């Protein structure tokens, strides 16, 4: 079965790996890619999305830029993790792919509304500003989206703060709007993505592909390894965003549990925390679920296979 997806992202080292997984998986039909400020500025992450479209041989897929900043808060980026360009050690040529002239919010709405109800899944791997704006301007999309699968939050841990994960904490008002909109939402949070460790053995699998894209994956992982060693004392880096994509491709790899989720907006020490209620069974009308576990080996096999499927593009993404 092929799933039609729209990917809203802020590339980003792990967003780049997520896009590789999505574009290299026959189970997904990527309809559009939209960007928002997050891991780096909107200008930088949008350039990365366009350059990656070239590299992956997907230059016909619309790429549209969206929100530069959160709904009400000051912008925050993560250059200390993703580097000055957002892609760490990876240097890509200037994009040949033209930016879609529409705003990301318009692309999200039009993509959903021009397909049958329940046909489009949204995968979100950055701050949720674009989605919050979309449901504010086009509330009719809520009942037409099959599911929102997002990388963000955590049940028991944070990374920007002890309890708040970066994507949620950057724009907690947007996150609350998305979690409480009433559409199905699956939160793939840090408790699960911290299990997606890119070990030297994983890195070797990408290197063994002998392709340009395999080498790009190696360089992305090495960038992340250095950043996580310096910032969070991880020996091997967790690659968060591809786990959300994997949940859509192969749900059996990412176990989930239905549970109510809300976002703290005013706590002195807890702003941006995803508050997950695991007390007993979820109410019948609960529209949210949280990831609880990951098949590490199956997950990385899926990502490596996707990069293998993409082949060995030339520098401007045309298949060799």
Q: What descriptors fit this protein?
A:
Inosine/uridine_hydrolase_dom; glycosidase; 36% helix; Ribo_hydro-like; 320 residues; Nucleoside hydrolase; two-stranded antiparallel sheet; 16% strand; purine nucleosidase activity; alpha/beta; 8-stranded mixed β-sheet
CATH class: Alpha Beta
Low-pLDDT regions: 313-320
Report the average pLDDT across residues. Answer: 95
Major beta sheet summary: 8 strands, mixed
Global morphology: globular
> Quaternary arrangement of the chains shown?
single chain
Number of helices: 12
> For the record, what is the CATH homologous superfamily label?
Ribonucleoside hydrolase-like
Numbering strands along the chain, what is their spatial order in the largest sheet?
Answer: 3-2-1-4-5-6-10-7
- Termini separation: 28 Å
What's the order of the H and E elements? EHEHEHHEHEHHEHHHHEEEEH
- By secondary-structure content and strand pairing, the structural class works out as alpha/beta
- Please give the CATH architecture: Alpha-Beta Complex
Query: How many extended strands?
Result: 10
Helix content: 25-40%
Rg, Å, rounded: 18 Å
Strand content: 15-25%
Query: How many domains, as an integer?
Result: 1
- CATH level-3 fold name: Inosine-uridine Nucleoside N-ribohydrolase, Chain A
Describe this structure in words.
Keywords: Glycosidase, Hydrolase. Residues 5-301 form the Inosine/uridine-preferring nucleoside hydrolase domain. One of its GO terms (biological process) is purine nucleoside catabolic process. This is Nucleoside hydrolase. It holds the Pfam family IU_nuc_hydro. With 320 residues, the protein is an alpha/beta fold. It has one domain: Inosine-uridine Nucleoside N-ribohydrolase, Chain A. 36% of the residues lie in helices and 16% in strands. The chain contains twelve helices and ten strands. The strands form two sheets. Strands 3-2-1-4-5-6-10-7 form an eight-stranded mixed sheet, sandwiched between helices. It has a two-stranded antiparallel ribbon with strand order 8-9. Helix 5 links the parallel strand 4 (120-124) and strand 5. Helix 9 (200-207) packs antiparallel against helix 10. The protein is globular. The two termini are 28 Å apart. The relative contact order is 0.17. Residues 313-320 have low confidence and may be disordered.
């Amino acid at each position: 079965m092929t799933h039609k997806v729209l990917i809203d992202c802020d590339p980003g080292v792990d967003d780049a790996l997520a896009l590789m997984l999505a574009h290299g998986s026959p189970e997904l039909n990527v309809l559009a890619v939209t960007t928002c400020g997050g891991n780096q500025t909107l200008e930088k992450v949008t350039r990365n999305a366009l350059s990656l479209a070239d590299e992956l041989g997907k230059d016909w897929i619309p790429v549209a830029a969206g929100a530069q900043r959160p709904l009400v808060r000051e912008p925050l980026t993560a250059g200390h993790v993703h580097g000055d360009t957002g892609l760490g050690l990876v240097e890509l040529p200037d994009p040949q792919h033209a930016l879609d002239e529409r705003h990301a919010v318009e692309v999200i709405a039009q993509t959903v509304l021009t397909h049958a109800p329940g046909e489009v899944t949204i995968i979100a791997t950055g701050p949720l500003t674009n989605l919050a704006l979309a449901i504010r301007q086009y509330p009719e999309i809520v009942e037409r989206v099959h599911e929102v699968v997002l990388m963000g939050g955590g049940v028991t841990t944070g990374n920007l703060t002890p309890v708040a994960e970066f994507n949620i904490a950057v724009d907690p008002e947007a996150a609350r709007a998305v979690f409480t909109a009433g559409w199905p939402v699956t939160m793939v949070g840090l408790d699960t993505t911290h299990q997606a460790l890119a070990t030297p053995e994983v890195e070797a699998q990408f290197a063994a592909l002998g392709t340009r894209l395999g080498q790009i994956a190696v360089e992305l992982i090495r960038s992340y390894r250095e950043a996580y060693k310096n910032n969070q004392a991880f020996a091997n880096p967790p690659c968060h965003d591809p786990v959300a994509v994997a949940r859509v491709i192969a749900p059996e790899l990412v176990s989930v549990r239905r549970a109510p989720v809300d976002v703290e907006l005013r706590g002195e020490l807890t702003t941006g925390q995803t508050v997950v209620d695991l007390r007993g069974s979820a109410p019948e009308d609960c529209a949210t679920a949280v990831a609880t576990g990951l098949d590490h080996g199956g997950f990385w096999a899926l990502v490596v296979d996707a990069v293998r499927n993409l082949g060995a593009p030339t520098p401007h993404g045309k298949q060799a």
